[in-house]
Amino acid sequence: MDTKTYIAANRDRFLQELFEVLRIPSISARSEHKPDMVRCAEWLRDKLLAAGADRAEVMPSEGNPVVFAEKIIDPARPTVLVYGHYDVMPVEPLDEWRTEPFEPVIDRGRIWCRGANDDKGQLYMQAKAFETLTATGKLPCNVKFMLEGEEEIGSPSLYRWCEEHRELVAADVILVSDTSLLAWDVPSITCGLRGLCYMEVEVTGPDKDLHSGLYGGAVANPANVLAKLVASLTDERGRVTIPGFYDDVRELTPQERADFNKAPFDAEKYKQALDIAEVAGEEGYTTMERTGVRPSLDVNGIWGGYTQEGTKTIIPSRASAKISMRLVPNQDWEKIAELFERHFRAIAPPTVRVNVRKLHGGAPYVSPTDLPAYQAAARAFETTFGKKPLPFFSGGSIPIISAFERILGIKAILMGFGLDRDAIHSPNESFSVDCFLRGIETIVEFYKNYAHE
Amino acid sequence: MDTKTYIAANRDRFLQELFEVLRIPSISARSEHKPDMVRCAEWLRDKLLAAGADRAEVMPSEGNPVVFAEKIIDPARPTVLVYGHYDVMPVEPLDEWRTEPFEPVIDRGRIWCRGANDDKGQLYMQAKAFETLTATGKLPCNVKFMLEGEEEIGSPSLYRWCEEHRELVAADVILVSDTSLLAWDVPSITCGLRGLCYMEVEVTGPDKDLHSGLYGGAVANPANVLAKLVASLTDERGRVTIPGFYDDVRELTPQERADFNKAPFDAEKYKQALDIAEVAGEEGYTTMERTGVRPSLDVNGIWGGYTQEGTKTIIPSRASAKISMRLVPNQDWEKIAELFERHFRAIAPPTVRVNVRKLHGGAPYVSPTDLPAYQAAARAFETTFGKKPLPFFSGGSIPIISAFERILGIKAILMGFGLDRDAIHSPNESFSVDCFLRGIETIVEFYKNYAHE
Q1: DSSP string, B240-303
Q2: Do the chains contact at B224 and A313, CB–CB below 8 Å?
Q3: CB contacts, 8 Å: A196 with chain B
Q4: ipTM associated with this complex
């Protein structure tokens, strides 16, 4: 039986199995779901064994367990390590769900459930592609699975787990289905993710809130000062003013820029969807470039003083902001955090004290399009979608992906089959049945292409 | 009996009476205290009658009643209208009080109670000065009292009440004890109050919070934009940049500036008390000038986006700020509100929408030092304190004072006897017994001087 026929013949069972795992409320952010995490890991272990793994285990970590499985057909052949996560985001606000969050329903060709896409639906495509290849006797290489239960809370345990299991997970490439297509008719492969450097700043003036009548005009107001400091972090050309910020940014070649801008982009539709009159950003770059390959600086939160209804005439004692920067190759987030802190302290006037804290960060990631595995993935998309996929640089960050490269020395290929409308992390998450099945087919083709490189 | 002897002889009774009125919890901000407001007004009416008024009434207003009383000795003589307020601020946080908020206690020469200074203690000095003059047969002019019960909530009813009772309250000067001395050994008369123009602004970008990874760098961030707009409202010389803002500001003459800066000011003590390293403000002016006779612009509150513990990677849909300006003669707060709104809209980039609201305002007030009533007050201080009082411009605002001038056409003299340490509006409010008695004596001297002008 060929692989396509096998997938079609087993379609309903694949979906039924997916529904089983979707029903387990494996919310990593809530400690009361610990038993669900274990149940979910054990269920996946059993299914990977049934799909043809030689070995499958639920392995402890400092947090939720990691499911590891492998099938070694020949140590001399290449090895693919599949990464995915079985934990899901919380489901609040509950009253916005049109169906039960953990009871999958198919409606208008889509599976509606928390985790339908992110990432149970997508990791199960990987499991069923593996089954298809083993069942049809067509698996051309070794396969390992590493499925974690803490991605939605920042993978706190997986970094160390990887360091302690380097040999076990050794592979030639990591395959991940946890991203989206540009559109159903615009297949794409995410070949870049931005890094992140998330800071918090606090500006303190007088040791208590002051009467703004008695002191206004004579004492530096921390909220006014904060506004000036934050305002000065970007210039009128939309560039970040922190000295050294752009030093390590790799500039695209004209050819790369031309390729990059081939992705379809409808500015009017974009503005309409966000209800904004104009886009804005770094001078000389397109919107796609601004979010894909250029760094950015955003205030994620700002607060200080009296923020309730009505009036209170005070000079607040302090004001704060959360400020994060998205980074691109080859920016180092720890170095950027240092540059930020040094600059922020340097520009603060002597009338206030500033406190700068580094909250979180991660390196940018890029998978060059000339990697053999990228080429194998690209040809797989061409086979199943009938057109060449566009290499796509997502503005988001998945810190664990760049950590795989740093810790394990393995590049990842991001073959994701979600769509924008899937509302991951939101109420009424969904995943198209067509995406699910086409995903399995495409992953199967990837293996065929990759093992013949 | 001379007036000084009368005051000394009746000292204990004066204090006992003050204690009676202090025990009434006349908190205007809490509707459950309505009966206390009436009780307090009736108590004052009775005491003013007993002190020698020909007539005393509790008169209705749209809100809490106004106590009106008068003694007309000769329509041809000048008339003094005493203004005061019998309402007090709320007492929260209760656990910070060292004594019961509404049970007066004398300790270390001070009366501890809500309202001890603001304004029951100070208005009762006026009542007892009046009694002293009538009882000793030395009242040299006509006297009227207008005591309101809503000052702490912005005098919402008194504006209209004054318009409707212009004839009743007609007078030559208004006398107010509701301010402070620079210090016990630095007697002063408040001859200026700043005005106020309180605005709220909101900057809106996309119609929902956006993922700062997917959109960061391509969409204007309302919090970043708000920071830029707020930052631009003042320049590096500490001046407000709103076009026309300074057009009506009366500049002091060199002589006035010299006089103005005679008030003792200890910069080191000032900075130490506020725990700041440097003062800050408009270039070319002293701290006293910056708070007394120069306008200012302060952010009273700012907020937008994620402000809890930890990180959330969003571009907030909107960000807001409360911004108030202190005004000086001859700035018009309604005009300034218009200039502010026009300017803020003009500088907002087309990438966002802005909403500007006027929340509150009041005119600045000034009582020239060459007014006969000011001169009478100055000589009274000289008699009782042994030194000339300094004319003092307070940075704060009492909007009703400038309204008296506008509605009634009467100037007010602000003879206040509080001290900085009295903690008005805060827990553990107090008022020095010495201030209370010296206040009565000084007010008595004012009448003697004023009626002989």
Answers
A1: B-STTTTTTPPPPPHHHHHHHTTS---HHHHHHHHT-S----STT--HHHHHHTS-EEEEEEEE
A2: no
A3: 213, 313
A4: 0.85
Contacts B296 to A, Cβ<8 Å:
212, 216-218
- CATH code: domain A3-193+364-451 is 3.40.630.10
In this complex, do A311 and B230 lie within 8 Å of one another by their Cβ atoms? Answer: no
Q: Within the 142-201 window of chain B, which residues sit less than 8 Å (CB to CB) from chain A?
A: 194, 196, 198
Nearest CA in chain A to B315: A300
CB A126 within 8 Å of CB A71: no
pLDDT tens column, B153-199:
889 999 999 999 999 999 999 999 999 998 899 999 999 999 999 99
Burial environment of residue B139 by CB neighbours within 10 A (0 to 12, 13 to 18, 19 or more): buried
Reading the block at residue A324, the tokens are 């994060």
| B291/A214 Cβ within 8 A | yes
The residues facing A390 across adjacent strands are: A188
From the CA of A42, how many Å to the nearest CA of chain B? 31
Residues in A closer than 8 angstroms to B261, CB to CB, are: none
**Gap from B303 CA to chain A (nearest CA, Å):** 4
- B chain contacts of residue A306, beta-carbon cutoff 8 Å: 300-301, 322
DSSP H helices, B108-157, are 120-135
Q: Phi and psi dihedrals of B126, rounded to 5?
A: -60, -45
Task: Give per-residue pLDDT as tens, B387-422.
Answer: 999 888 888 888 899 999 999 999 999 999 999 889
State residue B278's pLDDT score: 95
Of A217, A224, A232, the CB nearest to B299: A224
- Rounded Cα–Cα distance for residues A84 and A147 (Å): 5
Instruction: Name residue A3's beta-bridge partners.
Output: none
Q: What is the DSSP string of A232-267?
A: TTB-TTS-B-STTTTTTPPPPPHHHHHHHTTS---H
Contact assignment for A219 to B281 by CB distance below 8 Å: yes
Residue type for A452, please? H
Bridging pattern class, strands B210-211 and B188-193:
unpaired
Residues 343-372 of B with CB under 8 A from A: 349-353, 359-360
Q: Alpha carbon of A431 to those of A31, A72, A152, A299, B199: distances in Å? A: 27, 31, 18, 32, 47
Domain-wise residue ranges, chain A: 3-193+364-451, 195-249+295-361
Burial of A306 by CB count in 10 Å (0-12 exposed, 13-18 middle, 19+ buried)? buried
Residue A425 is given by DSSP the state: T
* Average pLDDT over every residue of B35-39: 98
The pair of three-digit structure tokens given for residue B119, joined into one six-digit string? 């304004």
Contact in structure between B257 and B279 (CB atoms under 8 Å): no
Find the farthest-apart pair of alpha carbons in chain A and give their distance in angstroms, rounded.
Answer: 86
Residue B133: DSSP 8-state: H
Architecture of domain B195-248+296-361: 2-Layer Sandwich (3.30)
Is B361 in contact with A313 (CB distance < 8 Å)? no
B331 touches chain A (CB under 8 A): no
CB B356 within 8 A of CB B341: yes
**Which has the minimum average pLDDT: A200-209, B81-90, B253-262?**
B253-262
Q: pLDDT class for A412, splitting at 50, 70, 90?
A: very high
Between CA B205 and CA B354 the distance in angstroms is 9
Asked if residue B452 has pLDDT above 80, the reply is no
CATH class of the domain comprising A195-249+295-361: alpha beta
pLDDT tens digits along A9-61: 999 999 999 999 999 999 998 899 999 999 999 999 999 999 999 999 999 99
Q: Which helix (H) or strand (E) holds A323?
A: strand A318-327
DSSP string, A207-231: SS-EEHHHHTTTS--HHHHHHHHHH
